[in-house]
Design a protein that fits this description.
alpha/beta, 4-stranded parallel β-sheet
Amino acid sequence: MRFNDHLRIVVACACLSATALLARADGAHLGKMRADKILFLGNSITSCGPKYWGLAASTAEKDYAHRLAAAISAKTGSCLTMIPTAAPVARPDGSVDVGKSNVINIADILERGYRTYEAAKIARQIAWKADIVILQFGENIPMASFDAAKFKNCLQRLVTDLTESSNPQIFVAGYILGANATVDNIKRQICAEDPARRVFVDLSAVGKDRANIGDYGHPNDKGMAVIADLLLKAIVAHSVCKPNVLFLMTDQQRFDTIAALGNSHIYTPNLDRLVKRGLVFTNAYATCPVCVPSRYTIRTGCQPPTTRAFSNGRSKPVAGQATSMTGRCGPYLAETMRGLGYRTFGIGKFHTQPWDEKLGYEVHLHSEELYGTPDQRRRDDFAAWIAREHPAYDFIEGLMGERTEMYYMPQMSPMPASCTVERWAADRAIEQIRSADPRPYFGFVSFIGPHPPLAPPIPFNRMYDPDRMPNPVCGDLRTDHLDEQIPWMNYAVWAEDV
């Protein structure tokens, strides 16, 4: 199962437990979302004359719009406003007045007429100030002469008009009858511009099952029920008040380096507080306990045979596997969280290949251990900060400590605590947490320490008396060296007894 599939399960469970719905003094709410007025702008799947409900539905109550409104009302304990649809009236100038209905067919505006976007035709609907808007269209776009730029501009203008009117939650339905990746990709782009208020809903499953299709090749009662159910799930998932998520990672920290878990020789007050307030996994294992493989497993949810990372390098995909990491594993963790409406930031060590690989973070600040070229050092955010803010230390080659034969040797940081990479990462994370952005955040903060070199700054290098510390625990070399990384690293740093 992919990582984003796990997330969907978690979100679904959260929805079941968190969608208690309140009819408050300021109107009906579905979770965090106001739910008094809902506006449906679609094509004949949404409304079609002469009956003015979903074309192939047997009654108004069985089309997806009325089903969805009833389902939301049942959850909120109130009644969503649904203005009966009247037959459009022709104006003297030849245009059509669709009245005050909140369920209308706008195929002439967003499908056949997208090149001009005549907002005046739906001015009443926009001015109605809906809380929830469902946009369902695309099937009637003449693709032979399709102009992607003009279509995107039309959709952007509609979304802007709606936002300026009432800033509603907008749910953009994907292609229903067949598939149209070109149109759906533009819809996704528009939604990605403001994921807190816009959600793309994939409805391709409807058309894949012929049992959902009735007269005129349109969704029948069964298909309408599927559409309503998929939209409802998306609305409920988006209505949940999402918690902020801060993912803290350290590198090569042993399991027994937390005082609260039984080590009386060390002082770790902040980690101890996390232990007391949270959940500790004392029997967890990494499938490949090496830096790059573990990091790709965390950001994809896939194991090394799929990521093709078995060491601090990448193996070629086997026959039948996609060539790209996301092609094999699906979207990265940050991309998945962005799709769930989170603002995302990633700070620290990522150890990707290439080193500056895009992982989906809106704010992505690097502090990598090594700099392969002068250009990488210039573009590494921590190293650039040192050069800019603390140029007195810019001459230091090993900003995190001396490597080579000193790699495993205790040493002192060449810089004060205020300039170390750990302090830099923590300060940058605090800046992001304090951002005025109203969206919930997902922050990934990856500290380099206590990965060698072992170079704490003053005064932390003086916290422990070496003579009072217990001796290191040594394993059997024949067993330990079954892990090829250990003898390889010994050779690389000239160590003889590690």
